[in-house]
Design a protein that fits this description.
By secondary structure, this protein is an all-alpha fold. The chain contains five helices and no strands. The longest helix has 60 residues. The N terminus is likely disordered.
Length: 153
């Protein structure tokens, strides 16, 4: 402890010979009081939010299993359908990503984050990506329409 005390006392700022007495004073006097106060605030916050956090974890786990079950049901339904096999992986991944994003937004909203601050960046990212790859998306959509409608068979 004495070594740390001497180290903080001898710290010199880059600007010259100005001693960092404020840093030494903070380390000497207020560090443990500040640490204790932060610990108390964290425990109070955890005590207030613990039931919400547990409920969010339970809902996440149940929803994750439901998403997996829905994907399996979708896979079985797609195998029995007349949709081309090449579209199966695309449809399953699209549904899975959509459900995971909706689950993430609902869990974050449950934990107290405002949903507008989560949905707005998603919309902006979607707009930016669609404008950046609009020609490729047009070709992809055309290919999916051709695969789904099978006009040449």
């Amino acid at each position: 402890m004495l070594m740390i005390h001497l180290y903080f006392k001898s710290v010199i700022c880059d600007a010259g010979r100005v001693r960092m007495d404020w840093f030494y004073q903070l380390a000497k006097d207020d560090y443990w009081m500040t640490f204790n106060m932060l610990g108390t605030k964290f425990l109070k916050w955890l005590d207030d939010k613990f039931p919400t956090i547990v409920a969010a974890i339970i809902i996440f786990i149940i929803s994750w299993f439901l998403i997996k079950l829905l994907i399996k049901m979708l896979s079985k339904g797609l195998k029995r359908s007349k949709i081309d096999v090449t579209l199966h992986a695309f449809i399953k991944s699209l549904v899975k990503i959509t459900l995971i994003v909706l689950l993430s937004i609902s869990i974050a909203t449950m934990l107290g984050l405002p949903s507008t601050s989560l949905v707005t960046p998603l919309g902006a990212v979607g707009l930016a990506l669609s404008l950046a790859v609009k020609d490729g998306l047009a070709n992809l959509a055309g290919g999916l329409i051709l695969l789904a409608s099978k006009p040449f068979v």
